[in-house]
Amino acid sequence: MDGFHDHLLLYDVETPKKSYIYKEFKKVYKALPQTLQRRLALLQKITHRQFRLDAKFQIRLYMLEAEYHNHCAIYHQRRNEIISDIYEPTDEDCTFEGNDEEKAKDKESEDVIVTFKGIPGFWMKVFLNCPFLEGITKKCDEPILLHLYDIRITYLANDSVGFVLEFYFSPNDYFSNSVLTKKYYMKSVLTRQDLSKYEGLEIHKSEGCLIDWKPGKDVTTKTVVEEQTDSNGLARTKTVPNKSFFNFFCPPVVEKEETIDNKKRILLDADFEIGYRFKDDIVPKAVLFFTGYYLKANERSLEDGHPRIHKPQCKAMNMYTI
């Protein structure tokens, strides 16, 4: 039997390892007839050109998404006006096809006097109801998130591809920043040497921002008492990292030419996943998380055998917040 068919037999192994198969194929490839090598080389070339075309499509799609987002900005602004008590909706505003259920409300509720403004704690409730942020938002974050009044998305321009998440806070006792930002850079990894790395347009780097914490208010650290005492017999204390959502603004840093180990790769993948979730789900569908409708819809899809929520990578954010 020739080397090519020997290679095919590798797939009959019960639990084949992909890296093992690839290494074996590289050995077999060198022994293949030139005719067969040319056929495989041309298949590689065709695939590379196909991926190059797809990379252009991904850029066009990104530009279309950015344009669409600009059109949606007016609706996001309107949402913020309602949440922040800038605009008070009328009955006429709330009339739209499909909300007959809301029209059948109890008459007594119309006589209730509402003393609070806007929708207090809107974004905090979104965070707490969001399965993608499970394990990230902690008790220490909740008083701060009460001051979060808007999250906006800005798409990068000037030959840069990516987006910025902007978190807007009212004046508070925790930090002096009015806006916290998280920037994500995207690119297509396409080389003829390794076509397997191509995944389309994807996040490859993120940048956080410096939070100007007020004295004693940094929830990303905590003071613990050491078991040993100092020379005077007094208890020693030290500052250690604390689990908090606000670690999100200090992502793992990857230096140039750095070999990324498995742990850092998990942290990076989790960070990138959360970035996508904010952009594609949390910000545009915020009211669905606030009302719990998003979870309800997922429960129905689970009954149908088609779950809509996938969060295994987000679980890694528990490591990220250590």
From TrEMBL:
Gene Ontology CC terms, in alphabetical order: nucleus
Recorded superkingdom: Eukaryota
InterPro entries according to UniProt: NAP-like_sf (IPR037231), NAP_family (IPR002164)
Cited Gene3D superfamilies: Nucleosome assembly protein
Transmembrane residue ranges: none
GO biological process, one term: nucleosome assembly
Family: Belongs to the nucleosome assembly protein (NAP) family.
Cited PANTHER family: TESTIS-SPECIFIC Y-ENCODED PROTEIN (PTHR11875)
Protein name: Nucleosome assembly protein 1-like 4
Organism: Nasonia vitripennis
Gene for this chain: 100123690
